[in-house]
Write a structure and sequence with these properties.
Number of strands: 0
Largest sheet: none
Number of domains: 1
Order of helices and strands: HHHHHHHHHHHHHHHHH
Helix content: over 70%
Length: about 475
């Protein structure tokens, strides 16, 4: 049986996260690949719709992300009951938000599609896809919250197993609905949306089964009414800057997608294909960054401050090496992969013209993600929020408009803007981590606590 310390080693945390995220990514790749057999227009719709869904997810991910870090800290501090209460509140609040978002997306699918300047001929496809997949946003909220909670208890294998099952089901249903095989009706993009909904429902059921036994004391239906104002305040203290950070990123990406939609469906489809391939390249580094966040939060909660500081560097440099290696693989196989997704020569040529820029982008993303997650793990989330608001809008979105539209650089100009954004934030989070502001405060509290304990013991000795 694994000890708690062994559960929180970087490798044991990272490899199941990698498999889970890779399989979740494959869910998107399968969507993109199979939808591309319908049409490139359908791919453009799915790409834009997924950006809308990500924007909506911020509302419940604010709670889930803050809760995840707090759970790892509490477990590190040997406060299992507090961690359990935090988890219960995160699930119930996320589910409530998810229900509201489901109703909004189902009823307002067409106005949302029009809001992002989608071409008129794509609106019927967008309305169908957004309304069906969006109606299951409550399932997305639950899977996100449950996966985050289970992962931060040190059990990263559970969400991985769920991702495997979810992908298998999704692939089978996609194949059936798109091609009219296995006794399914041929429904095209509508079938892809239904497939997504069904696979998420089954994943939610499996994660709920794991959730009820995730802590020392089993969670029952009656526990869902538990609410602790102090702990919920602690969740929001960590979570709300993370929520603004996430919203800043997603909304800036939506702005960029709107710029791309203005450029045309070809640019929008190319960016969707490129984003899929880049995500495969970056996935291992991203899993390392998430594992580092869990590990540092646990070390920070247990009072092991020096090891927490070292873990930030170790995890980020390992991630940089892995991302660099994957980028080289992408460089040599890029054209073959892109040609596999689409036969449109214009899309392939546009993607190839941006290849060098995509490779420069990846290490900057890892630098920013590694140290940014390290800061979040110790509760230093406001700094990330501030620099994100400035850089994402000033550089990622603002410079994308200037270079992409005003100067006419198109998709290449947008990539230049994203590179500037990632490297600026990466440099700033390194500087912040080296300053050790929150870590020094934790060391001071630890020293103060030890001093009080010594005084108490000396007093007891004198009394004796």
């Amino acid at each position: 049986m694994q000890t708690e310390k062994n559960k929180f080693t970087l490798w044991l945390l990272a490899w199941p996260i990698f498999v889970e995220l890779l399989l979740q990514l494959l869910l998107g790749v399968v969507d993109t690949l199979m939808v591309s057999r319908v049409s490139d227009d359908a791919v453009a719709v799915v790409g834009l719709a997924n950006q809308v869904f990500q924007a909506m997810m911020i509302l419940f991910m604010t709670v889930a992300s803050g809760a995840g870090i707090l759970i790892a800290q509490k477990i590190g501090a040997k406060q299992q009951e507090a961690a359990r209460t935090v988890a219960i509140m995160a699930v119930t609040v996320s589910a409530a938000i998810g229900v509201v978002l489901s109703m909004i997306l189902y009823q307002e699918a067409l106005p949302l599609a029009r809001l992002f300047q989608l071409e008129e001929r794509l609106l019927p496809l967008a309305q169908t896809y957004i309304s069906i997949v969006g109606s299951g946003m409550v399932l997305t909220a639950l899977t996100a919250a449950l996966s985050t909670i289970i992962r931060n208890t040190g059990n990263t294998k559970g969400p991985m197993i769920t991702a495997i099952g979810m992908n298998v089901i999704h692939i089978v249903f996609n194949y059936g609905f798109i091609y009219g095989e296995l006794g399914f009706p041929q429904l095209g993009l509508t079938g892809v949306a239904i497939s997504t909904l069904v696979s998420r429902l089954l994943a939610t059921c499996l994660l709920l089964f794991m959730f009820v036994t995730a802590f020392e004391r089993r969670i029952s239906w009656g526990d869902l009414l538990v609410f602790n104002r102090k702990l919920f305040g602690a969740i929001l203290k960590i979570g709300w800057p993370m929520g603004i950070n996430m919203s800043s990123w997603v909304l800036s990406q939506l702005t960029i997608y709107t710029i791309l939609a203005t450029l045309g469906a070809r640019e929008l489809a190319t960016r969707t294909y490129l984003n899929t391939l880049e995500s495969i390249c970056f996935m291992l580094g991203f899993s390392i960054a998430l594992a580092v966040q869990i590990q540092i939060a646990h070390l920070y909660g247990s009072g092991n401050i020096k090891e927490a500081y070292r873990s930030g560097y170790r995890g980020t440099w390992i991630g940089m090496g892995l991302v660099g290696f994957n980028s080289l693989i992408l460089f040599f196989t890029f054209k073959s992969f892109l040609s596999f997704f689409t036969s449109d020569a214009g899309i392939v040529q546009l993607g190839m013209s941006c290849l060098g820029l995509t490779l420069v982008l990846q290490p900057g993303k890892m630098l920013n993600m590694g140290f940014g997650n390290a800061l979040s793990a110790i509760g230093d989330t406001r700094f990330n929020m501030v620099i994100s608001l400035i850089s994402m809008w000033g550089l990622a979105a603002g410079l994308s408009y200037y270079l992409g539209l005003h100067l006419g650089w198109g998709l290449a100009g947008i990539y230049v803007a994203m590179i500037c954004d990632e490297y600026l934030r990466g440099i700033l989070v390194i500087i912040r981590w080296r300053q050790k502001k929150y870590l020094r405060q934790a060391e001071a509290r630890k020293a103060s606590g030890a001093g009080l304990e010594n005084v108490r013991q000396e007093g007891m000795g004198l009394h004796a």
